[in-house]
Amino acid sequence: MPNTLMWSSMRTLRRAFSTAPAASKPKTGIVMMNMGGPSHPSETRDFLSRLFNDNDIIEMGGGIFQKLTARFIVARRTPRIQKQYEEIGGSPIRKWTESQGEMLAKRLDEERPESAPHKAYVCFRYAHPLTEEALTEMKADGVERAVAFSQFPHWSCTTTGSSMNELWRQVKSLGMEGDFKWSLIDRWPLNTKFLDAVVERMEEKLSEFDEQSRSKVTIVFSAHSVPMKVVAKGDVYVNEVSATCKALMERWETRGHKHRHMLAWQSKVGYMPWMVPSTENTLKALGKKGNKHVLVVPIAFTTDHIETLYEIGIEYAEEAEEAGITHFKYTQGLNGSAKFVEALVDLVTDHLDSGKNHSVQYGQKCLNCQKPMCRQIINPAN
Q1: What is the pLDDT of residues 302-325, one digit of tens each?
Q2: How far is CA 356 from CA 29, 233, 246, 344, 348, in A?
Q3: 346 is catalytic
Q4: Which of 30, 129, 149, 306 has a CA that sits 20 to 30 A from residue 382's CA?
């Protein structure tokens, strides 16, 4: 608490004395890291190819076997997945990440002039702009200080871990080891402003239910699932998602709401065991028990993309109707939420003020991890 008060006071002083910086090359780059998605459906094959060739998320050794297997899977999945992207008009994740980054950089320039000018760089793992493209742009811009900012609130080796590993691989491949001073924001499951932004979205959707039936609504938090072999290795993702759900419901009750809730897992791929219960089976079970009012809250997704717009908004909506759930709604992604931008500003400002290179937990590898790039940091800032 004392540190929080201290940083809040520092921000207040900066705001009082800061002036808008003159237009110049960015000093601090905020690297906004995410999986990405095909902005246009025609990009689907390349997106899936990068995804299934990633040994951090699809563990098949990364050699010729993985390449051949990935080629076979991609050939089979592309037509179906491309149609899904066509139905939602392509993934909006790049549009929203760019917008969030622009608002973040503007606010940082106002509130933290000592590290200004700031510029946000979209850095996607499987879609453009790719990691190497972001790094090349940063070098051309003359960035000195870089913050690798995971847009996943919860750490998993399959998401943030994969993005970080690719970052260090590309830094080395491009010979940029000495070009930027790095630090990392690697997780933020309990950031209070992030929680406030999610609660705001929940209240927006709750208000769409008939007033007489709002107390009957069951809340289903839906997070992207992970293979059980990932959980068995000590990946902390499930724990961090659960902590976010608990904190949200505590906030929810302080605002006068009382609802039953569940945590479910979506987007399983393949036949291996994944984290359960699945969102699909959860909805079927709720319908079978006579639940007529359900609100799904995508919890590990901060920005809308195919898992929210198509999987929840179309597939699960149809399955909920078939299960007898007559009033099914789901929350919008944080997208253009002003509260979410506040959270991003809060996270970056507190991180820079802290003088830390990363969280304490970042240094803890999963059990028996032998991956050479895992949990590295090149040319640390502090």
Answers
A1: 999 999 999 999 999 999 999 999
A2: 16, 27, 27, 17, 12
A3: yes
A4: 129
What pLDDT sits at residue 10? 52
Is residue 150 within 8 A of residue 349, CB to CB? The reply is no
Q: Closest by alpha carbon to 96, among 309, 267, 302?
A: 302
Distance CA 219, CA 94 (A): 28
Each residue of 115-136: pLDDT tens digit?
A: 999 999 999 999 999 999 999 9
- What's the average model confidence in pLDDT over 8-25? 52
Q: How far is CA 339 from the centre of its chain?
A: 16
Q: How many CB atoms lie within 10 A of CB 40?
A: 12
Helix (H) / strand (E) containing 368? none
Residue with tokens 């319908």: 287
Number of helices followed by number of strands (H, E) in the chain: 13, 8
Q: Which of 56, 179, 235, 346 does the annotation list as catalytic?
A: 346
User: Two tokens at 45?
Assistant: 């094959």
User: Distance (Å, rounded) from C-alpha 374 to C-alpha 382?
Assistant: 20
Of the candidates 120, 92, 97, the one whose C-alpha atom is nearest the C-alpha of residue 107 is: 120
Angle, helices 2-17 vs 93-111, to 10°: value is: 80
